[in-house]
Amino acid sequence: MGAWDIMSQHFVEKGKPPQGLSSFTKIRLGWIKKQQVQFVKAGETSFALLSPLSRGGDCLVVKILVDKWSHYLIENRQPIGFDRVLPDSGMLILEVHPDAEDGTGGVKVKSAISSPSFDQATYKLEVSNRNVFVDKQSNISIIPLWKEKENLGVLVTTPDRSKAAINAALAIQKLIDQNGENKNVISESIAAFKNKDFEKSYDIAVGK
């Protein structure tokens, strides 16, 4: 996990405070309760709003059940609290193999951009080559969305629905960036998105 968990790497930069713990470690320590985890099965479509992991909140992790040997954990990592020094910020994805022995790669960061320092590990809606993670074999796509205050939207869906979802999310983000103008349009578009009608959400956002 590199610098995304103090148990993996003890600091991001020498002379600066250490980073916090990943959701994987916090779950093992009992610091994240079951009710703070949103469970999703591979092949399902599900929307979540994740609080910053270091801040705490009602929903801290999305757990995607791939099979009996593996799952994904999705976090919202922001430079807040114990995470005030991070290599990056945004949606972080961990691949977990619970039965693997310690030290054998039982948990890995699924980095958006491969880098030894994990400094481009997170996924961001506004960055075209970092706005979706796809596991075709497991029929999973994970997309970072817009923010609602400090909370980050996350969509788990299937690869065939990714393009429509990303287009809708980008259109919503564009409206939000316009200083919150057309609040009714934003609300209607987000409601359609959360209802999993991405095409309708896009049409509302762009005024079709």
Structural commentary:
With 208 residues, the chain is α+β, with helices and mostly antiparallel strands. It has a domain at 2-44 and 53-123 and 133-139. Helices cover 21% and strands 26% of the residues. It has helices at residues 23-29, 162-177, 183-194, 198-206, and strands at residues 37-41, 46-50, 61-67, 70-77, 90-96, 107-109, 133-135, 140-148, 151-157. The strands form 2 sheets. Strands 1-3-4-5-6 form a 5-stranded mixed sheet, with no helix packed on it. A hairpin with a 2-residue loop joins β3 (61-67) and β4 (70-77). α2 packs antiparallel against α3, α2 (162-177) packs parallel to α4 and α3 packs antiparallel against α4. The longest helix is centred in the last third of the chain and has 16 residues, at 162-177.
